[in-house]
Amino acid sequence: MTTYLDDYTNYIYQTDYADFYNAVVRVSNSESYGTGALLYDGKSILTAAHIFEDANTDNITVYFDTKFGTQAYGATITVYEDYDTINSNGDLAILTLDENPSSFYERYDIYRDSFEIGKDFTMVGYGAYGSGSTGELYYETDILKLKTTNTFDTFFSIIGNDSSTNIAWDPLPYTILAADFDSNSSLTDAIGYILNINSIATNLTEGMIASGDSGGPAFIDNLIAGVASYSASISSYSYNTDINNYVDSSFGELGGWQRVSSYAEWIDKTIRAGYEDAPNSKEEVQKAIYEGDSGEINYTYFLLEYTEDRSDVLGNITLSYTTRDGSATAGEDYIFSSGIITLYSDESSVIIPVEIIGDDNTYEGNETFYLDVTSPSFGSFGEGVDTLTASRTILNDDFFIA
Question: What are the domain boundaries of the chain?
Fold first, then answer.
């Protein structure tokens, strides 16, 4: 992760195993490596497909940082079906972990709005580091997870369509977010020079993705809005804002992030296809679940169903959901979950998973928590009803005698 200041060890770029970014992970296939992030289901890693291109995918490993080093997990891969290797369109993959990591780690939802342009974001990754004036420092060997900021200025398709530029690839319209690496000088404001969209650095944390950051998340409001895909140096007529005229993540270059909101349906449906033993109908729903052994994480599933004729509704239906404590406590008995759930145009029901935290050290008795669903974008819950609520009981399965 190339950073703005000359000293990449400055605390403003640092991350910690216990902070919000602790579920940004390092991914590897023994031949190359990149970055990824743990999604809302607690078992899926969103990353870039090109990391695994032309490589053996039988030995994928995902590394989580811990206080004492790293914790490794095996994983299988699903690549976006229309990934275009030539033009880097749809450069996305989901890694499914062999087991859920500890509840200690964050679970990230994705950005589902379409208002990324003009917004500041935080990028996090395990890539090469240096400064905007030096570019990547190839001789550095430490593995660091750093964070920097930038602003999504435009889409790469708009840059490619501008008559003053000549890029060698064909980005799909409005699917690849672009940001340039500014130095607080108009001389390196690449997008400002090409499109007259002037922005000369967010602040001292302005940065750019570098080698090894591929697949890393770009967060808007703590939601994953972009996935790091590539960097580029682009000239306009006879002028090039890149300070050294070759791609090394230095000042004046641009980065491209796959726009997550454009692929939300694929991400959601890929995750849903992997739910184990999920109910297919309300008759199959189990309203009680054993907590399991200490350190073990299991799922309970809620089924949300649209009961009218789905074919009468054009497009998607969205609703908000959130878990709520009863006698069970989030963070101790289950993992808090909230966000937007979407019934896509071909769906009349959808599963909402919640992770249950095992504990065989303390007898607590049976405990209950709730899931509240609100704000349907279409239809209603009935006259005067604002919230649908369902409950789950966590059964204590340890020995007890009195």
Answer: 2-266, 278-395
CA within 13 Å, CB half, 321: 24
CATH number of 2-266: 2.40.10.120
Closest CA to 270 of 49, 32, 21: 49
Mean pLDDT of 218-240: 89
**Do 323 and 337 form a contact (C-beta atoms < 8 A)?**
yes
Contact 323, 336 (CB under 8 A): yes
Cα end-to-end span (Å), the chain: 58
Rg of the chain over Cα atoms, rounded to whole angstroms, equals: 23
According to DSSP, the residues that pair with 394 across neighbouring strands are 289, 367
Q: What angle do CA 124, 129, 131 make, to 5 degrees?
A: 110
Give yes or no for residue 213 having a pLDDT over 80: yes
User: Whole-model pTM above 0.85?
Assistant: yes
The tens digit of pLDDT for each residue in 10-46 reads 889 999 999 999 999 999 988 889 999 999 999 999 9
Q: Domain 278-395 classified CATH 3.40.50.1370?
A: no
Q: What is the mean pLDDT of residues 40-65?
A: 93
> Which residues 6+ apart lie within 8 Å of 127 measured at CB?
1, 2, 35, 146, 209, 210, 211, 212, 213, 214, 216
Tell me if 2-266 shares its fold with 278-395: no
